[in-house]
Amino acid sequence: MLDYFRNHQRLMMALLLLIIVPGLGFVGIQGFSNFFDESAYVASVNGHKITRAEYESAFRQQVERARSMLGAQFDAKMFDSPETRRAMVDSLVQQRALADEAQRLHLTASDDAVRRALLADPVIASLRKPDGSIDVDRYKQLLAMQGMTPAQYDERMRYTLANDQIPASIQQTSFTSKSLAQNLTELAEQRRTVQGIVLRATDFAAKVQPTDAQLQAYYDAHRSDFATPETATIQYLVLSPSTLAAAAKPGDAELKKFYDDNIQRYKTQGEVRASHILVNAPKDASVADKAKARQKAEELLAQVKAHPDQFAEIARKNSDDSGSAAKGGDLGYFAPGQIAGGKAFDDAAFSLKKGEVSGIVESDFGYHIIQATDVKPSVTKSFDEVKDAVAKDYAAQQGTKGFADSAQGFTDLVYEKAKSLQPAADKYKLTIQTATVGPKPNPQLPQDSPLNNAKLLAAVFAPDSVKERNNTQAVDVGNNTLVAARVTDYKASTVPAFDVVKDAVRAKVVAEQSAAMARKEGEAKLAELQKSKSTDGFTPAVTVSRNDAQGVPPAALGAIFKADASKLPAYVGVDLGADGYAIYRVNGIEKAAPVAADRLAGAQQQVAQVYAQADMEAFIDSLKARSKVKLSAAPAPSAE
């Protein structure tokens, strides 16, 4: 069943739209600025307004999430429809209604639950120090970049956990029987033995001899099929951190100041190579046990001082750190904070000179005796050594800062100086680029090219751009990038004269009539075979499944598995369109292998998730029915 999902990605993408997207609050695709009126909110639920800013914020977050989830398969056009936009707003309404219900039920989350959720976050987990604690300073910096304090983030997490309790409780109660899961799995993995006959359209092409009059008539009836697309030659500017960084031309004085202000970037951290002997004494050990452990550590220290050259042998025989004991206590090279012994261990290790032995050092693990076997001091690279790196770092910093400072000014300038991009290019030291584009994305360009952005293309082909030759607005194409364009030449869509496209017309007529002839003959042959039950002319039998088509076209595979299993052999015909017509003889069904226990459990879980989604949607429908929902424009039917 899992293979079936993998092999039907287009179907899965459709399910993503129909099921997952509304349930997760998947909102926001570029180019929807005309959907709402100019009011400050898009909907209200029980008096709580969902603002345009909230919608746009969710929009930006979720479009990037969709882009990262779908990768090369991401296509904004999948979402560009009134139905999808209504579903997006509806998902925000659902979230607000759920939040109100959680508040009505007095649902909350304990401090312990919040703490566990925070520690389970991979980003926060990455902030762990070697001793297992969280680097609080880095945590605060991370939140500050998002405009939050730890207290605010805790409350956001508490709010999320409280609201998640309702859908979680519904999903946890959903189940499906083993028999249903087994039946569905057996159907999904069923294998059928088939033989085929394919009447290819190309085999009938020689029989099609259209007259000039027929070609002219076809051309007249299908003129739009031969139209050349409209195109626009444009100038455009790209404002982004990288383009601003490229424009930065600092002098040596500026680079030297940046170097001095950020000297830590160009300093290699000091390292020490050390060996240690550990005598276990956990911090929760009794006083007596700690005293006993310390006495043992003192005895070992006396041995080491008497025979410092035998440190490795003493560690091998006596250290309670089994990992390093096997290597004579060697911990390798490390920088401050990389050893779990904590600050006391670091302070002792980095105070030693090569060959020196410490006194007894206490940590949360017990008592250590440390010997420094090598010392690498901290080294600061000179400005001349790292000048190229300094220039790159300076440009990157200036680009990021410059974008934040320049975005609004750039937007205003391309609007105010609507007849030329030169003023904006001069002010922000940008290069005016040129290109020829059509109204639809060009598959030959990288998918993330700004020239493939649907919102930018819509602005380029708007009447104000094409007729008045005004600059487009500064279009946000994602990833901190603004693009403004100006049309310098426009070619409207035209229909070439018949004589110019006569060969193309002939090719289309021949293809269509060949396919029609193949279909007609195939249907007649199918009727004959259904009466005679003959096997003449069929290819050798192959066994196919939904996951292993053996070269059978998808449309034919569907017909094969729709054939009545109680009336085999059965004959099915499939129109393959321009490829012709196919007939398949379904001979039999192979006995299914027993479904393994692990696959059956997985199938049960998948079906249960489908039921859980249906239960959740039913609950949401009832919740919205008893909530006061108002949409500012184009309300979804379910919210009326």
What report would you give on this structure?
The chain has 640 residues and is of the alpha+beta class. The protein folds into four domains: 2-174 and 604-639, Porin chaperone SurA, peptide-binding domain (Triger factor/SurA peptide-binding fold, Orthogonal Bundle), CATH 1.10.4030; 190-226 and 499-589, no CATH class; 231-252 and 388-491; 270-377, Roll (Chitinase A, domain 3), CATH 3.10.50. The protein is built from 23 helices and 17 strands. It has helices at residues 2-7, 9-24, 52-70, 82-104, 111-120, 122-125, 136-145, 150-172, 178-188, 212-221, 241-247, 252-261, 287-306, 311-318, 322-325, 342-349, 387-416, 422-428, 454-460, 463-466, 498-532, 554-562, 597-625, and strands at 41-45, 48-51, 191-200, 231-239, 267-268, 271-280, 330-334, 357-363, 366-376, 379-380, 433-437, 475-476, 482-491, 542-545, 570-575, 580-589, 629-631. The strands form five sheets. The chain has a four-stranded antiparallel β-sheet with strand order 14-3-16-15, sandwiched between helices. A four-stranded antiparallel β-sheet has the order 11-4-13-12. Strand 15 and strand 16 form a beta hairpin. Helix 10 (212-221) crosses helix 21. The protein starts with a helix and ends in a 9-residue tail after the last strand. Residues 1-39 and 634-640 have low confidence and may be disordered.
